[in-house]
Amino acid sequence: MNSSELARRAGVTVRALRHYHQVGVLDEPPRSSNGYRQYGVHHLIRVLRIRRLSALGIALEEMPRLLDEHGAEAPAVLDRLDAELAAQIDRLTAQRALIAQLRHLPTTPDLPPELAAYMGTLAGHLSPELEQMDRDQTVLLAHLVGEEGMPHLVGYYEQLSDPALVPQIVAITAEFHGLGEETSEAAFDDFVERFVATFAQVVDSLRTDAPDLDLSDAAGLFDEYSESVLNATQQRALALVGERLDGSADDAEARDPA
Question: Which of 5, 44, 65, 141 might form a disulfide with 73, Cβ 3.0–4.6 angstroms?
């Protein structure tokens, strides 16, 4: 039988047969005078055995030991395969539990689940542009702090979700969205003052007992992001706010170096 007939009888594709040849699990028969390979019943049996092992999850590269050594390696291979499947089941179970949790959170599933509940507090209160910025920066920040810094970051977002603070955050972010070339210096300065007053306590709390993390790349990445989505006035406001908040932290440390 030719390759097409063998594939049909075995329930595989011709492409699969070629792959079996390439990895060395199925010998290539010699070509007949017409240039086509001619397979026999032993090739069919071999392919059927390959299919059976493949259905168990055994990799093609491991099959020659099972097919050609009379199953001496089978117990060890099956033990390892069973352990891998058990670990995969555990991962899938955890993934399903996470999906069930995300179903009940008022935000998109691309956010870290630890932060999704708190992010949902502002959902619907900000413009679509600001909500997108908030999600983007949260995803980036969560990645940068990693598992070690996540509990601290959760505490920060918990504070931002304080019902007493949410209306202030909504108002200040809406005003930030409106900053532009037409904003007067007086209005600009007033905005910076109120922004610092709104967030200073939360930022100071974030710095308190902060884990020792390597965030050397964070500033550059957030600067690059800001430059891509904010106008010049908004960028200037954030830079000034950052300086003011850093200055407040330095003053507090000078007053209480312990």
Answer: 65
Half-sphere exposure (CA, 13 Å, Cβ side) for 133?
18
Task: Name the segment(s) of the chain with CATH classification 1.10.1660.10.
Answer: 3-72
Class level of CATH domain 3-72: mainly alpha
Torsion sign, CA atoms 76, 80, 86, 88: negative
Q: What is the pLDDT of residue 45?
A: 92
CA 83/CA 80 separation, integer angstroms: 5
Residues 6+ apart with CB under 8 A from 56: 78, 81
Check: CB of residue 193 under 8 Å from CB of residue 244.
no
For 138-174, b where at least 16 C-beta lie within 10 A, e where not — what string? beebbebbeeebeebbeebbeebbeeebeeebbebbe
Q: Is the pLDDT of residue 61 over 80?
A: yes
In the block, residue with structure tokens 């993390």: 213
User: Residues 119-151: pLDDT tens digits?
Assistant: 777 767 777 788 888 888 888 888 888 888 888
Provide the residue count of the chain.
258
Chain-centre distance for alpha carbon 93: 18
